[in-house]
């Protein structure tokens, strides 16, 4: 059902998400615990930094979608920024709901929320919208 290429792409995307996510999560805890920011603000800051790391890894290693055209990268950056904005909003809201409604510690709530947002929101949009290649580009690359 799944091709070897799609499985490898998925696994690479998970590595990129993990590296960006570890940076994001660690920075969130640092900003909240040491910086004394409310966790929703920490998620905004840490999510932005994690997103920059994630974008770079996805662009150059996972999807290898790095044409030299500045309009192409600008389009990818805009789309990625919209995904990140949605992702950060969902993570902040989900973490807040779990903390307020169910008294789940924000660190645990964030992990729970992240798992849903990463697989159900981020990955599909990043793969099929942000770094989508047309089949002509794929044929030219494989020639």
From TrEMBL:
Q: What is this protein called?
A: GtrA/DPMS transmembrane domain-containing protein
Alphabetical UniProt keywords: Membrane, Transmembrane, Transmembrane helix
Q: Which InterPro entries match?
A: GtrA_CellWall_Glycosyl (IPR051401), GtrA_DPMS_TM (IPR007267)
Q: Which lineage is the organism of this entry classified under, starting from the top rank? A: Bacteria, Pseudomonadati, Bacteroidota, Flavobacteriia, Flavobacteriales
Whether Transmembrane counts among this entry's keywords is: yes
Species, as recorded: Flavobacterium bizetiae
Q: Report the family membership.
A: Belongs to the GtrA family.
Q: According to the UniProt entry, where is the signal peptide? A: none
Q: Which residues cross the membrane?
A: 7-31, 37-57, 77-98
